[in-house]
Every structure is written in C-alpha cells, then in structure tokens.
Amino acid sequence: MFYIGCHLSSSSGYLHMAKEAASIGANTFQFFTRNPRGGAVKPQDPADVAAYVDFAAASGINEIIAHAPYTLNPCSKDEGIREFTANTMRDDLEKLENIPGALYNFHPGSHVGQGIDAGIEMISDALRKLLAEGFKTPVLLETMSGKGSEVGGSFSEIRAIIDALPAGANVGVCLDTCHVFDAGYDVVGDLDGVLAEFDATIGLSRLRALHLNDTKNPFSSHKDRHEKIGDGFIGLDAFRAIVNHPAFEGLPFFLETPQEDVAGYGREIALLKSLRS
Questions:
Q1: DSSP E strand stretches across the chain
Q2: Which residue in 52, 224, 265, 268 is the catalytic one?
Q3: What's CA 39's distance to the chain center, in Å?
Q4: 37 is catalytic
Q5: Is 224 a catalytic residue?
Q6: Is there a catalytic annotation at residue 111?
Q7: To 10 degrees, the CA torsion angle through 79, 144, 40, 55?
Q8: Phi and psi for 115 in degrees, rounded to 5?
Q9: Residue 267 catalytic?
Q10: Catalytic one of 45, 54, 70, 276
Q11: Is 256 in the active site?
C-alpha cells in the first residue's frame, strides 16, 4: 500500500482535512497542531473527532502526522521557552489521545550556542518527562538540515537523544528528504548507503514516516529551503527510487513542498503515484 499525503490547514477540523485529502487523491495528511509560529489553539470538538474517525476508517486513512509548531525548542537557553515547549507538547499529545493512528512530529530544537551535547541532554530530559505521562501517540524526531545550531542534523545526534531515553520509549523518526540531502546524506547518488547508515546508527525499525521535499539548495549546504518535487537539486529520478525502495514500503509519505493551493499537492501526488512501479 502506498500512503501519500500532504500538509493541510487544521483550521476547519479533522473531518474537513480528511475529506480535502481524499479529494486530491491522498490517503493520509499532515497538519500543524496550532499556528506554526505558536500560540493558543481552539478546543477540540468531540463531534468533529467522531466524524473524522468514521470517515478515516471508511476511506483507508490509517496514519496521519500532527506537526508541532516551529516555536518549540526544548533546548533553548530561555527557561520560559522550555516550559512553553513542554506545556504545548503535553497539550498536543492529550488531544491526540482521541485520534487513532496519529503520529506526533517535532523539530528537536536549537542549542543556541550551548553546544550540541547540552542540546541533546536537554531534549532527552524534556522527552523523558513527557513520555513518563504514558501517552499512546508515538513521538517522532525529525531529521534536520544542520543549519546554525540545530540539533538533529546527523543520524548520530538523533541516536544520542534516543539512547538517553528509557528502553522501549515510544519514539520514532521522520526522515525529511530535503533536510538530509542538505545535511550531507546523498539520497541522490547513494540512497542505499544512506539507508545502511541510518539502519546502523538509528535502526530502520525507528523510521515511521517520511517528508518528501525537493530542495532549492545544493548537496550538503546545511540550509533548509523546500522545493517542488523534481524542480530542485534532488530531482525526479531520486524520488522515483525513494517511493519504490523496499525499506519504505508501508510507511506514510508527506509533502511539504511550496504550493499555492491544495490542487498543487494533488498534482504532485499524482506525479509520485505515476513513479511507482
């Protein structure tokens, strides 16, 4: 089964997103849990949740991603930002308890000059406290491009965070194609080698989802500017290999490309489906 979807606005509710996804040929979707720059969120509507659950079951939507806002930073120098991050993630996960098949994805954070080891320790500590509350939704660490003081720009940094968590922690990884290419992992010329390194460092069993994004940046630029599929430095042939690779079979793919409207995502979904062999 090929699970392919895109990023949608959550302002109209879960049912609306699911119907919008289905209308463009998607069978999954991603959404921000609140404004991507942070802030309050409206209360969850139980009627909308119930209607979504019924529609998703009938439409074959099994896993979706709830993406945390960009303002979260569990390794900030500012204690207030760290507290805001913890409270936001807790609130998000409490809501996701009502959504079957949800995954919760977040950017690990930026150590802002404190050093990578300090950043990893603070992220791990925040996750340990959060996971101790017993939420059933898996939490995904997203692979990053390594720009500035970002944590998660290498597989070893992701692994170090996971290693500091209790055994069996409900944590996985979301691999972003733009980010890893920009970080120096050659998914164009050596996809098998990248996956072998991922498996040796983190373990493919931890991989739960992929963000499919081309990039405006050349290889190993350590930047983060997404491009439409086939229009960037990764290119269409590499995405053909990615969507057909056996290591990704059964995993959900999510588009985060720069589109003017949802119809643009529909065209990309059709393109990616056409690459499947």
A1: 3-8, 28-32, 64-67, 102-106, 139-142, 171-176, 207-212, 214-215, 226-227, 252-255
A2: 224
A3: 20
A4: yes
A5: yes
A6: no
A7: -140
A8: 105, 150
A9: no
A10: 70
A11: yes
Confirm whether 211 is a catalytic residue: yes
- Provide the residue-wise pLDDT of the chain in tens; the chain has 277 residues: 899 999 999 989 999 999 999 999 999 999 999 987 766 788 999 999 999 999 999 999 999 999 999 999 999 999 999 999 999 999 999 999 999 999 999 999 999 999 999 999 999 999 999 999 999 999 999 999 999 999 999 999 999 999 999 999 999 999 999 999 999 999 999 999 999 999 999 999 999 999 999 999 999 999 999 999 999 999 999 999 999 999 999 999 999 999 999 999 999 999 999 999 9
> Does the annotation mark 70 as catalytic?
yes
Whose CA is closest to 77, among 110, 124, 125, 45? 110
67 classed as catalytic: yes
Is 185 catalytic? The answer is no
Active site (annotated) includes residue 222: no
Q: Which of 63, 176, 182, 214 is catalytic?
A: 176
Catalytic site residue from 7, 34, 67, 208: 67
Question: Is 199 a known active-site residue?
Answer: no
